[in-house]
Amino acid sequence: MFEHFFQCPYCWEEISFLLDTSVGQQTYVEDCEVCCNPIEARVVFENGNLLQFEPMELGQ
Asked: Is residue 10 classed exposed, middle or buried when 0-12, 13-18 and 19+ CB atoms within 10 A define those classes?
């Protein structure tokens, strides 16, 4: 597991997601721990390295 810190696209507070490095491409939907809005994050790992992390408001 890999903890990645980023800004919430709704409230702009710094939060983190725990990401599974064993899955190459994945999409997560989790609520912001500060404002509780749902965030969709598209994630790409290669050889355990984070290549892409795109957090966005759900539905965009």
From this structure: middle
Confidence (pTM): 0.84
- How many other C-beta atoms lie within 10 A of the C-beta of residue 43? 22
pLDDT tens track for 22-53? 999 999 899 999 999 999 999 999 999 999 99
For residue 5, the one-letter residue type is F
**In this structure, what DSSP letter does residue 15 have?**
E
CA distance 32 to 29: 10
d(CA 50, CA 52): 6
